[in-house]
Amino acid sequence: ASEAPEHDVVVIGGGPGGYVAAIKAAQEGLKTACIEKRGALGGTCLNVGCIPSKSLLNNSHIYHQILHDVKNRGIDVGDVKLNLQQMMKAKETSVTGLTKGIEFLFKKNGVDYIKGTGTITGENEIKVNPLEGGEVQTVRAKNIIIATGSEATPFPGLTIDEKRVVTSTGAIALEQVPKKMVVIGGGIIGLEMASVWSRLGSEVTIVEYLGAIGGPGMDADMAKTMQRILTKQGMKFKLNTKVVSGDVSESSVAVNVEAAKGGKAEALDADVVLVAIGRRPYTTGLGLENVGIELDERGRVIVDSEYRTKVPHIRAIGDATFGAMLAHKAEEEGIAAVEYISKGYGHVNYGAIPSVMYTHPEAAWVGQTEQEVKATGKEYNIGSFPFSANSRAKTNLDSEGMVKFITDKETDRILGIHIIGPNAGEMIAEGVLAIEYGASSEDIGRTSHAHPTLSEAFKEAAMACYSKPIHA
Ligand code: FAD
Ligand code: NAI
């Protein structure tokens, strides 16, 4: 290389992995740029993922609660009407506020924000096709971090138009409440989106290839409990069922399904079909072939434990590479990748990354499932506690679900924690900390938890592991 590199770090992609890496790098005193092609920072998560879906989940829950739940709390309301346009506007306001917030953080930390599509053209060179047109710009970098994220996996034979046949991106932007909706895939996206539209009035049928909902990683007890709760809320499930084909017409879609192991075929009618069968890494047009960087059979950028590709100063993080496709996982990797560059060491504990599904009640978990522990052959204890025996959940008239601990029988060390319940997504933070610190169930059980709070159910589930809970 004859020319001196212009930036110490150039990040390609401005999602949770990329923007966090860029801010961290600038904080470490490295001259940093971040290239993003969508015209807004925050990636999938802020623009079409975590944030807009949570806005719709929260507001559809309030609507549904007013319709079906407030009367028995002593609140009589008059005519309740859905204003979908306003609900979408509220969602957009949250999204715009947050994406602009990241732009502000870039300015504050001195990150150069380059708007355009980046292609790696050499080991230290990226060409950027500017979003607003004009000449291709060359950016030179000592280190490159690939954080280009993922996209929805398409379903063969069903062309996505984001109106009638949608991915999550179309599903968070429907202009009308569909009368009937078919969801292909009973994983996290499927269940969150099914919740939104079912609460707003759709008849929703979820078709899942496997025998359980929740996607990979959900404990079998929890998946069963969740299915029972969601069925009570009005969702229909077809498990062990595969979609064979779809016929799209002007006004509707027929989804042809049959038993996964062969069997009776059936056609399901819908106004909207959501394809939610997983996501795949996105590296189209990135130019990896120009520098010999390899992908695995699932399209993930191959990296070592320090996120280095075959070209050691080009690293990859987040959805574009191995591991759970979660925003907070991408963020941890963003920080660790930068620390490897600036300090030579970094840290992500992959055994302590929480998962949260934002249905009502929420599902949240960390560590191993009971099935995973069983497969190791290790002897274990289970301690569980239902929210129906928790005073706060009872008082709030919101007491479905439970907390389940799995511990090592010999040492009492916590191996996994699984929660279905109100605010499970907040409660799991205590479980993550417990696993991070190598806690035993007795450590949690002997820790005072405020009364009356939902967190007492967490303590009592821990007590159920090494002793007995008081209230069950
Ligand atoms: P991304 O967020 O995908 O960002 C990558 C960015 O790179 C994109 O903005 C893209 O435009 C840009 N890019 C790609 N190629 C180029 C290029 N060549 N040049 C310039 N820019 C480029 N996770 C959670 O943890 N919690 C949730 O509640 C949650 N909800 C979700 C809901 C939905 C509907 C979806 C779809 C996902 C959800 N996720 C959630 C997953 C989460 O969005 C992803 O795990 C996260 O966004 C991954 O971050 P990333 O930085 O790796 O990639
Ligand atoms: P997923 O992997 O969670 O679930 C996909 C489901 O579809 C699985 O249950 C699978 O068995 C099923 N499936 C696959 N092919 C099928 C077929 N042909 N017919 C019927 N069913 C089929 O993927 P999903 O829900 O699309 O989400 C993608 C990613 O986004 C997840 O990895 C998740 O981590 C992330 N995400 C996270 C959220 C959160 O943290 N709250 C919210 C939404 C998405």
Automatic annotation (TrEMBL):
Reaction(s) catalysed by this chain's protein: N(6)-[(R)-dihydrolipoyl]-L-lysyl-[protein] + NAD(+) = N(6)-[(R)-lipoyl]-L-lysyl-[protein] + NADH + H(+)
Broad enzyme group: oxidoreductase
Binding sites annotated in the UniProt record for FAD: K54, G118, T148, G149, S150, D319, M325, L326, A327, H328
The EC number(s) this enzyme carries: 1.8.1.4
GO MF annotation, one: flavin adenine dinucleotide binding
S-S pairs: C45-C50
Record's keyword annotation contains Flavoprotein: yes
GO CC field: mitochondrial matrix; oxoglutarate dehydrogenase complex
Cofactor notes: Binds 1 FAD per subunit.
Misc. remarks from the entry: The active site is a redox-active disulfide bond.
Similarity annotation: Belongs to the class-I pyridine nucleotide-disulfide oxidoreductase family.
Name of the protein described by the UniProt record: Dihydrolipoyl dehydrogenase
Source organism: Pyronema omphalodes (strain CBS 100304)
Organism phylogeny: Eukaryota, Fungi, Dikarya, Ascomycota, Pezizomycotina
